[in-house]
Design brief:
This protein has 281 residues and is of the alpha/beta class. 25% of the residues lie in helices and 16% in strands. It has 9 helices and 14 strands. A 5-stranded parallel beta sheet has the order 1-6-5-2-4. Strand 11 and strand 12 form a beta hairpin. Helix 3 packs across helix 8. The N and C termini lie far apart (61 Å).
Length: 281
């Protein structure tokens, strides 16, 4: 009897991953960052899940010609770099990072935006995997057979500053800023030079830390309470942060419990906070 093909859920557990390592189409991607603007530190530098492949979010899977940090790469660039990692059209991708849950949801979102749905985030990431005593190894690079991945970019998944500006008046969508409350309210200077403090008018604040506990997503009932409090019904939701990375944490948390249309303002505050004549609260 043929084995039933199971489509990945958006988030999988360490136990689930350990039970599916023999799947020939399964690939594990390490999306750990060397540093981050949130000032978070990892206790798991220099190690990876066994046979993981490094997904260089900061230097490779971004737009090198854009002065704004972490902007989405072109579909051609994304396709070429995925092929170098041996990623195929039929690959089942599980992505993690060494902070628990930080940069991995950005990679989940990138693949979804590029038309690849069979992708999941490892809940709790490398810390959870390691604490469960599953196999890890020293980070290493290996030669890989090129894959046949092909991006099919969904242009509508990404919003630009002009669309966000128009939305301030139309209020067609609700903009959710996931930076810390102090940054959202402009109580502290922004970590990037030449970027104003404050937030986009009429946006609301859901700090990304509020949907996590010990590096793992809160249970669905607790996540649902967070989004139920917004009373937005079926209104489209737009997520932003400092530079489009941590916004994907709350976007994914929302994906677990809400069917609203979800979009990312990729430039986020790194762009908005530099734009002249753009309103700030």
């Amino acid at each position: 009897m043929l084995k039933t093909q199971i489509k990945l859920k958006p988030v999988v557990s360490a136990k689930w991953l350990s039970q599916h390592l023999d799947d020939p189409n399964l690939l594990i991607l390490d999306a750990s960052l060397k540093d981050n603007k949130a000032g978070l530190k990892s206790e798991y530098e220099g190690i990876q899940i066994e046979n993981a492949r490094f997904f260089d979010l900061k230097n490779t899977f971004c737009d090198p010609d854009n002065p704004i940090s972490n902007m989405i790469p072109s579909p051609d660039r994304f396709t070429a770099e995925c092929r170098k990692l041996g990623i195929n059209k039929n690959s089942k991708i599980v992505v993690y990072d060494n902070l628990g849950t930080y940069s991995s949801p950005r990679v989940w979102w990138l693949f979804k935006a590029m038309g690849h749905d069979d992708v999941a985030v490892l809940n709790g990431g490398l810390p959870c995997w390691s604490k469960e005593n599953f196999a890890v190894e020293t980070k290493k690079s290996i030669e890989l057979e090129p894959g046949d991945f092909q991006a099919d970019f969904n242009l509508e998944s990404v919003l630009n500053s002009e669309q966000i500006l128009e939305n301030i008046n139309s209020e067609q969508s609700l903009v959710i800023d996931v930076r810390s409350e102090d940054r959202f309210l402009g109580r502290v200077p922004e970590p990037r030079e030449n970027v104003k403090s404050g937030h986009i008018p009429k946006s609301i604040n859901i700090p990304f830390s509020s949907v996590l506990a010990n590096g793992m997503f809160l249970p669905k009932n607790e996540l649902n309470e967070i989004f139920e409090r917004l009373s937005v019904k079926n209104k489209p939701l737009v997520f932003c942060c400092g530079s489009g990375v941590s916004a994907c944490i709350v976007l994914l948390a929302c994906e677990l419990v809400r069917t609203n249309s979800k979009y990312l303002y990729d430039g986020s505050w790194a762009e908005w906070g530099q734009l002249e004549n753009y309103p700030v609260e």
